[in-house]
Amino acid sequence: MKIEVLGTGCMKCRRLAKNVEKAVAELGIPAEIEKVEDITAIMDRGVMLTPALIVDGELKVSGRVADVKEIREILQG
C-alpha cells in the first residue's frame, strides 16, 4: 500500500502525516508513506487544497486533517 501525504510542510500537514503514521502502526499493515511537499508535484496530482491524503493513487481527503480513526477506516477499505 502506498500512502502519500501532500502538503507544503505546514502544521496541519505535519499533523496529518503523524496521524497517518499512527494509524498504520495501530493497524500493523505494511505501507510506504511518502510526504510530498513540492507544490508542483501536489498540483500534478490534482490537489488544490492541502493537507491531502492519497492512498494507492486515489485522493481520499483534501483540505483538512483526518483523525486517526478516519484514516484507519480508509486504510481498511
TrEMBL record:
It comes from the Archaea. Disulfide bonds join 10-13. InterPro entries: Thioredoxin-like_fold, Thioredoxin-like_sf, THIRX-like_proc. Gene3D superfamilies: Glutaredoxin. Keywords: Disulfide bond, Electron transport, Redox-active center, Transport. The active site is at 10 (nucleophile), 13 (nucleophile). Residues 1-76 form the Thioredoxin-like fold domain. Does not function as a glutathione-disulfide oxidoreductase in the presence of glutathione and glutathione reductase. Has low thioredoxin activity in vitro. Belongs to the glutaredoxin family. This is Thioredoxin. It comes from Methanofollis fontis.
